[in-house]
Amino acid sequence: MIFDWAFAVSILPDLGRALGVTVRATLAGMALALALGLAWALLRRAPARAVRLAVFWGVEFVRSTPLLVQIYFLFFVLPGAGITLSPFATGVLALGLHYSAYTAEVYRAGIEAVPRGQWEAAWALGLSPGHTWRAVVLPQAIPPVVPALGNYLVAMFKDSPMLAGITVVELLQTAKLIGAETFRYLEPLTLVGLLFLAVSLVSARAIRHLERRLAAR
Amino acid sequence: MPPADGPVQVPPGTPIVRMRGVRKAFGDALVLDGLDLDVPAGQKVALIGPSGAGKSTVLRILMTLERVDAGTVEIAGEPMWTMPRGGRAVPADRAHLRSVRRRVGMVFQHFNLFPHMTVLRNVTEAPRHVLGLARDAAEARARELLELVGLADKLEAYPSELSGGQQQRAAIARALAMRPELMLFDEVTSALDPELVDEVLGVLRRLARESRMTLLIVTHEIGFAREIADRVVFMDGGRIVEDDAPEAIFTNPRNERTRRFLRSVLRG
Fold first, then answer.
1. What pLDDT digit, counting tens, does each position of B36-91 carry?
2. Domain locations in chain A?
3. Which class in CATH covers the domain with range A29-167?
4. DSSP state, B253?
5. How many CA atoms lie within 13 A of B171 on its CB side?
């Protein structure tokens, strides 16, 4: 089989559009994972023991079950519960929820690294718990863990083809459709790999750049 | 309920600190063993003694950073861990703890400045968000205090750009900005290089001379304690062993343990 450059160029616009879907799903999923993960990390320190335990086991459960199972579960079970989301929204929800279990751990490490003296100084000054979190603890806890969070962004990007399983027309799904129509799989799948590689490399560089800037502060 | 800012009225004759039978243990280690201590408003008290005597724990209890296992603590006549409700004493809620510790400020051995904030913001953060001061008012107050501690040219510096002595002086300004009635100094020169100790002691000396605040100073600087304190409390083994005017303690200690301690620190 010979790589047909003309064919590859002709399918590039379709794949480019599909890449847009993949990137949007990843970014939306990451935004959700960042917000939910922070919520889990904070709830892990809630005054009520029942809340702490519930969040601990919830996070354990999500981390210990495969993403693909969670994607299928949300896609096929949620409508039965009366919640109907588009495949794209379901996919974003699944990615965000799954990765929030990991980002929660990253936030937790960052929060635990803030010295006890910072909490004590905030308490001695009379700062409220909410203000202590917002103005004192989180601004110190998050910058050091940005690289670790960024790594999960890249990991999530590479997991996004699983959304093909629930009919989201993202990059891999598009390549499969092109293949089914033209009986040529070499070019679309090669391009999919190359596009993933390109975006991953660019993201990794951006994260390293961010890491250096944070370290310089 | 005291007013949000400014001096709080205390009934005359009420000690600002009143501790009775305070016990505190960390695990198996008994740190305070039935401690009684009264401090009248305005007094400058030096708390001295060997390490492990419980001096810092006394300050941490007064700052509500530690709970007592037994005994009572009152700040300006108000019980710290309980509050009156319906004629009975019930456990203190958050608002009560806030109003009690509004009267108290603390400076720590390791400064504990907020490293991601400038010096100016370190000093204005609590006045703005706890006392509700406008930015201008909080900054005016901060500038005045930072000038007092000799940091007028470091307003926009970050703590990491300052020497230890400068950081500690900024931390003193930060605590003063809340205008506490009682200031607690927990070995504030112990983490400093020897050549930086004097600049911090100079600030404390000035506070002791010029302010009407009550100062409770845990220190290993015996000469300094003798110079600025109205009263010296010597602790050992979780109890107060001797409690007297500086001249009496330093020239004529009555207790054998005090004598031994003073001999060892004065020789060292």
1. 999 999 999 999 999 889 999 999 999 999 999 999 999 999 999 888 888 888 99
2. 29-167
3. mainly alpha
4. -
5. 31
